[in-house]
Each structure stands twice: as structure tokens, then as C-alpha cells.
Design a protein that fits this description.
The chain has 258 residues and is an alpha/beta fold. The chain is built from 11 helices and 7 strands.
Amino acid sequence: MPAKTIVICNRKGGTGKTNVAVNLAAYLSNFGKKILLIDLDPQANATSGLGVDNRNHQGIYEAMSQPEKANLSVMAVRHNLWLMPASENLAAADIEMVDLPQREFILKNTIDSVLSQSGEIFDYIFVDTPPSLSLITINSLAAADQILIPVQAEYYALEGLGQLLKTIDLVKESIKPNLEIMGAVITMYDKRGRLSGEVWEELYRHFPYYIFRAIIPRNVRLAEAPSYGQTIFEYAPSSKGAKAYKNLAREFLVNNSL
């Protein structure tokens, strides 16, 4: 089967989007799946969170600029886990792509080039996106087979979710008719507070797509791991955060085997 491209997307910042991208990719690779993680966020948090110094490597920006050499930007970072790192150069990509033909499909063409050039056969390609509606984000949606939406357990996150769903509908109408929403995953859940529970109930009541039963808690170890350039699987494998991501990866695999 061809690799499935899954975009981790939310227009709102602070939802734990990069944590989901990095740690879900890490656990799936540990389960034997071959994963390519593309860091499409100019802040490069997924890149640094995996311990990569992006000053020393070509990345997704260079690959999008020269798709015929895209494979040079792919680097192995863990067993079964590859990365296309981000850099500050990516911040200029929106402006540089504006006047290009087929500008919405530059990332898709880049991914196609990687798959044709690479000797590896990936099971899943994850794309970590910036928390904004930009041409880069539109490129990610045009390249995606499915979208996974991290939702922080707070009310403002629900407002941002509605805006994102409208954007996805527009992309489906004009660019990618077969784009699917895989579902939402609750992040930064605090079971001690009533608010998190109320947000969960609201989401379950109104969100028309699948909601993962694995809930990512607010956890100190999860917050610390990126500063050490490690996944939660490496940094604190017995923590509540690690167990939550392990459950999320298992649920992900069950859903993708149906």
C-alpha cells in the first residue's frame, strides 16, 4: 500500500500539535511502522524536539525549492523514523510561492518526489503544520489523505475548531475533494478540573467526526522532553504522558486497519 499522508493541524496555537506529531510518530515507529515526519512549521519545534540542529541540514524548505533533490532533505533520526527538518528559511516560503504555478500543490509534488527517490517504503507520512492559515498550511491540506486535529481541553479551542472545519470544507470544495478528517484527539487534559471534562462533553456532543478515546493529559514530563531533544518514549517511558501516547498509537493502528 502507498504511504498515507496525515496532517496534524489546528489553526490555534498551544494545542500540543507538535507533541502529537512527534510522539505519535515515535510510538508508531517503535511498533514497527516506517514513519516520515515533515516539520512544516517555521518554528521548527518538531525538529528540535527530536534533537536535530537544523543549521546543519537541508530541510523541507530546500526540498520544496528543488523537488528533484528532495530526498537529500530526508534524514534518519530513530529506528523506523525519518525527518524532513524545518528551518527559519521556511518563514519566507509563503511569499516565495505566491506567484508560482500550482502553488497549492508544491508540498504534494515534493512528497511524491521523496517517495519516488527514496529507497524506503514509508507506512505513514506525518506533517506538523504552523498554527495559522497560510499558503504553507493550504499546501499541507492539499497533500493530505487525512487530517488529525489536536484539541486542547479549553473552551477557546472549541471556537478555533469551528474555524478550522470551515477551512477544511473550503479546501475540499476547491482543491482536494477526497480529503478526510481522521478525527480529533484531546490534549492537555486535566482530570482534576471540571473544565476539561466539560470541554470533552461539548466536543463529543457537537464534533461530527471520530474522537480518539486515548486522551493526552497535562503532564510535566511531556513538557520537559522536547528540551532534551527526546520523545516521551525515550525521556519518561513510564510517565502518564507516555502511556497516553502509547494508547493513542495503538488506537491509531486499530482504526487504520479497519
